[in-house]
Amino acid sequence: MEFEAQRDRLIRELRQRGISERVLNAIRRVPRHLFIPENEQQYAYTDYPLPIGWGQTISAPHMVAIMCDLLDIRDGMKVLEIGAGSGYHAAVMGILAGSGHVYAVEVIEDLASFARENIKKAGITNVTVIVSDGSLGLPDFAPYDRISVACAAPEILESLTDQLRIGGKLVIPVGQYYQILYLVIKTNGFKKEEKGEVVFVPLIGKKGFL
Questions:
Q1: Residue 147 falls within a domain, yes or no?
Q2: How many other β-carbons are positioned within 10 Å of the β-carbon of residue 35?
Q3: Fewer beta carbons under 10 A from the terminal one: N or C of the chain?
Q4: DSSP class of 108
Q5: Domain at 94, CATH number
Q6: Among candidates 41, 65, 12, 171, which has minimal Cα distance to 118?
Q7: Residue 97 lies in a domain
């Protein structure tokens, strides 16, 4: 009950930021405390990033919400996430994708196992966590309707835009110490929009920073 009241308060805060009801409903259905180490669970419904181990963090709820709103994930879509972390963002996108599927790539094997356990505990069945170099995307299941990148890239990566369906959308933070969040829409070319300054952990991989 304590977590439920905290979650309700968080939803009210996110609504004041202008987050869509579809995304708010998805966030309400995913218990964030299940995706956080036990010693941090008291802070699960504060609107801040939190450490999840392995030098990584879980994004602040408002950032998850903003990115989901920008992507406009709909029922039946195939979604790629780069940087699964503890699995929370992928779980929220899984709710939005409905009969679709989310493929979440994580380069740290132990963290990927943690994410799988959390997603299972939350009862989410349409998310697959794969250990791989996310900077290269996941060509096995391409093309994707939506791609979400939850780590900072040095540029808008061609390895990801190549795996995006025509009409598809990509959100990606670009920069090293602080980043600009970009929404990229693939047409015959690309439409690129800046969506504000953000701070993410660096993308690890061949086309990342590390």
A1: yes
A2: 27
A3: N
A4: -
A5: 3.40.50.150
A6: 41
A7: yes
Residue 32 domain-assigned (yes or no): no
Query: What is the per-residue pLDDT across 153-162, written as a single tens digit (0 to 9) for each?
Result: 999 999 999 9
Active-site hit among 59, 86, 135, 148: 59
Distance CA 3, CA 207 (A): 39
Residue range(s) defining the domain that contains residue 87: 63-198
Helix (H) or strand (E) holding 202: none
Task: Give the integer Cα–Cα distance in Å for 92 and 166.
Answer: 24
**pLDDT on residue 67:** 98
> Over the stretch 10-25, which tens digit does the pLDDT of each residue have?
999 999 999 999 999 9
Structural domain count of the chain: 1
Answer for the pair 96, 74: CB distance below 8 angstroms, yes or no.
Answer: yes
Active site residue 59: yes
The answer to whether residue 34 is domain-embedded is no
SS3 state at 103: strand
26: amino acid identity, one letter: A
At position 45, the amino acid (one-letter code) is Y
